[in-house]
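Our consortium's second objective concerns turning raw sequence data into structural hypotheses that experimental partners can test. To show how far this objective has progressed, the report includes one record in full. It was chosen at random from the queue rather than selected for favorable results. The single chain below, 276 residues long, was entered without modification.
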Amino acid sequence: MYQIDRFGPVVRIRMAPTFLGRPLLWVNAFWVAGLLIDSGCRHTVPDLLQAIEQEGLRVEQLVHTHTDEDHIAGTAELVRRFGVRPRVHALGLKGLTIPETKKELQLYRRFFWGAAEPSRGEALGDFVEAGTYRFEVIHTPGHARDHIALWEEREGWLFSGDLMLSPRHDRVRSVEEPAVALESMRTLAALPVRQLFCSHAWRVHESAEPLKHKVTFWERLRQDAAGLQSQGLSVREITRRLLGKNGFMEWATLGDVSKQNLVNGLLRAVGDPQRL
């Protein structure tokens, strides 16, 4: 399942694998002036290719915000069809050439996304040029160590990868580093954004305000959690008090994506400047 949306010269290809005819989790790829940003998951490769053909898009460059399987799994087919050389942050080159196999992925990741084929890539420089546009590459670790955002200053476009998601995003994977992500979000929130493109959300925001709200939400959560921890409460108790009961994602991922991971990650950073 896919849909096409246009925001001026930016084309968004919004894709979702389906189960019993219903969409599961949506992921976005963006195209502008021959540059494709991300390529979706294994289950949506046919949708990506059909959308590109339907819209008559030429794919001359391919950049990934990071090398999670829901962002790179269309890459091998794009390389075969268009001869592009994918580019990622230097820390992501191994993840691109040796992605996690179907056996290595947790069950929920196999179900929602599927495993990616290996692709050879190149390390990104400081800028990506596409047509008349010039994107600054900003290293924004936390969600993933190789995560980057793309910033087109003249247009005010920010492609934020998986850093935004929602202003009250309250669950993270066990491998994420929330305190590091918080610093990355602060960096992006300071930019004079006019259009904020998220790799999963349906809405394109017209400022950085939602990102600022998320920064405030996480900062307050960290402060409140630290206060409760000083009273002797466990992380589980703190999480339940501040964020409520577990939901579908905790159950579906066997705890790999959870509210407790977020609280625990923020608490580990309290008083530790090495993590900030």
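The partners drew two points from this record. The chain has a mean pLDDT of 95. Residues 132-276 form a domain with the Metallo-beta-lactamase; Chain A fold (CATH 3.60.15.10). Both points have been shared with the crystallography group to help prioritize constructs.
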